[in-house]
């Protein structure tokens, strides 16, 4: 089991097997990828750390139970859209997005 936190800049976090926790730690308008793989993984994103155009892609095609935990967010702050196996979360007050799934 791993706990990984992204940093400023473009990051790709890879948890591998096990029950991993991958945390978005903020960046400067660049791409961040979080990949947990096998195991029951938890992904944590705090809206307060997003910039005006943050792009986060959570890649996890494992069949286990995974959790996406959004902090500093109310239901009126986001819009959800599904495109095939990909769920796209958009924030209503910025161009930031979270893409959850493959694609």
UniProtKB/TrEMBL annotation:
<dbReference type="InterPro" id="IPR018511">
    <property type="entry name" value="Hemolysin-typ_Ca-bd_CS"/>
</dbReference>
<dbReference type="Pfam" id="PF00353">
    <property type="entry name" value="HemolysinCabind"/>
</dbReference>
<dbReference type="InterPro" id="IPR001343">
    <property type="entry name" value="Hemolysn_Ca-bd"/>
</dbReference>
<dbReference type="InterPro" id="IPR011049">
    <property type="entry name" value="Serralysin-like_metalloprot_C"/>
</dbReference>
<dbReference type="GO" id="GO:0005509">
    <property type="term" value="F:calcium ion binding"/>
</dbReference>
<keyword id="KW-0106">Calcium</keyword>
<protein>
    <submittedName>
        <fullName>Calcium-binding protein</fullName>
    </submittedName>
</protein>
């Amino acid at each position: 089991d791993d706990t990984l936190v992204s940093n400023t800049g473009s990051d790709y976090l890879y948890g591998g097997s096990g029950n991993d926790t991958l945390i978005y730690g903020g960046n400067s308008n660049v791409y961040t990828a979080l990949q947990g793989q096998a195991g029951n993984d938890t992904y944590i994103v705090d809206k307060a750390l997003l910039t005006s155009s943050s792009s986060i892609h959570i890649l996890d095609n494992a069949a286990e139970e995974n959790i996406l935990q959004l902090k500093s967010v109310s239901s009126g702050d986001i819009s959800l859209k599904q495109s095939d196996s990909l769920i796209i979360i958009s924030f209503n007050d910025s161009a930031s997005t979270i893409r959850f799934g493959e694609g």
